[in-house]
Structures are given as C-alpha cells and as structure tokens.
Amino acid sequence: MEFELDEEQRMLRRTVRETVAKVRGRSEEQQWETYLRLGWLEAPPLELALILEELGHAADPTPFLATATWFAPLAGRLPEGSGTAVFDGTGRYVLDADRADEVALLTPGGVTVVPGADIAAERVAVLDPRLHIAHVGAGDLAVGVPDLALMGLAATCVGACRRILDLVLDHVKQREQFGRPLGSFQAVKHKAADMYVAVERARALTHFSALTIAEEDPRRGDAAHMAKAAAGECQRVVFRHGLQLFGAMGFTWENELQYHLKRAQACDLLLGTASVHRKSLLAS
Fold first, then answer.
1. Which residues lie below 8 Å from residue 193, measured CB to CB, with a gap of 6+?
2. Distance of alpha carbon 277 from the chain centroid
3. Domains of the chain as residue ranges with CATH
4. What percent of the chain stands above pLDDT 70?
5. What percent of the chain has pLDDT over 90?
C-alpha cells in the first residue's frame, strides 16, 4: 500500500488550499456552490481526505463533510443538494440535519432516503457555533456508523489541528519575552514539537484509513477506528499546548484560534471520542 502522495494528489491539495483561501470570505452558499461546481464531492477516499483536511484547516462552514462522508456511504449516491445521514441509532447530534436537502435514515429494515423538510430536526447549540448539529426524531433507527464518516471527521480534525499549530508557530516567532522570541525557549519548542508529532501521526492514520476504504481492504473498520482515535488524541495535545502557548490572547473572541479549537474538539466528540474507538479496537 503506497503512502506517498503522487504528483496529482499534491496538485489537488495545492488547488484546494488556494481555492478555499480565495472563497473563504464569501457566503456559505457561494462557498458551497464552488465546491459542487469543482466536483469535490465525487473525489475518491484518499483525495477526499486531502480535501477535508484543507476544509478543516479553514473551519469550513458548509455541509460538505456531512454530504461527502455521512450521506453517501449509506444512500449509495450523492444527494442533489446537501445531505446527511442518521446512523447512530439515537438520532442525536446529527451533522447538518437541520439544513440537509436529503437525509438517509439507517433503520432495521434498511436505508430510507427522505427529504430534509420531512424530518423533525431541531438544531442544538454546541461549542462550535459554525457547525449545524441537530437532534432528529425519526422513529425506529439502527446503529451502523460507516468507516468513511469516521475517516472524514478524522481528516477534518487533522486540518483544524494543523491550523492551530500554524497559528501558534506564527505567534511564538513574533511574541517576545525578556527580549527574546517565545519560540526560542526550549520548553516552547518541546510543546510545538509534541503538537507537530501528534498532527503527523493522526494524518498518517487518516490516510491509511482512506486507502483501506478505497481498496476495500478488510482492515478498513479497524483503520477507521484508529484514525478517529488518533485525531481525538491529537486535538487534546494541540488544544492544551496551543491554548497555553497563546496565553490569554487565545481566550479572546477577536483571535482566530478559538474557531479552530472548537472545530477540533467538536470533531473528536462527534461519533465517539478517542476512548470510545480505542475500546472498539480492543473488542474487534
């Protein structure tokens, strides 16, 4: 199994990064239309992981994550607009359920796709105000979380953690104490190194998960659990060190850091934290 990105994949990553930076200041609807026009929803698993990492890096507000990784694995197709799926058996904390054009319901009798307007979805407040999370009252539901959904959340979390690391590095290079940049102190270097290692580890496992899904490898279930667990552990390291290295500035509403801290933590909480997926690996 090849772990090195080829030239086309590296070019895709650069293109996505440039496109997201260009449309970031536009409305959610305009950003969503851009992603649809470029055909990103149709990307195969590894390329999709690259796209989701860049969108996570930008704290993307569109329903791309739910449509690409929550809906498609269950419904067997992409929705005409935005879409999401209900597959945790409870109908609680469903990503984008309050604004999806279509919802795929996993029931004991199979998958049913219904218009979003027909679903009683009530948006709930979560720590990341840019995320649309809702409780869904849909009757009899079954449990069956797709590997692609776990991989998608892991990739998004990696992107958010990478952005936190980028912001921290810029901060410690510019901020001075005792006449020296903060980044010159050994303790600061150690924390930044821990953050970098955590991000790269989570990214590698996310790519491995995407590759197993693409090749229909029998290890895909375990790989998805590993990716989600690693991403959750990554966000805890990055959250703790990132907030500490930024100091009081990291708590302010004016600072961009807060958006990415919230996005990373939300990705860990959705569909089970790192400890949940560690237990699933032990039971498999």
1. none
2. 16
3. 79-137 (no CATH), 147-283 (1.20.140.10)
4. 99
5. 78
pLDDT attached to residue 2: 56
* Dist. CA 237–CA 198, nearest whole Å: 7
> What's the pLDDT tens digit per position in 155-179?
999 999 999 999 999 998 887 677 7
E-strand spans in the chain?
A: 83-86, 94-95, 102-107, 110-115, 120-123, 133-137, 176-177, 180-181
Q: How much of the chain is helix, strand and coil, in % rounded to 5? A: 60, 10, 25
Residue 231 CA to its chain's centroid (Å):
9
Distance CA 52, CA 60 (A): 9
Q: Extract the tokens encoding 200.
A: 């790269």
Q: Which helix (H) or strand (E) holds 2?
A: none
For residue 103, give the H/E element and its range. strand 102-107
User: Looking at residue 1, what is its pLDDT?
Assistant: 52
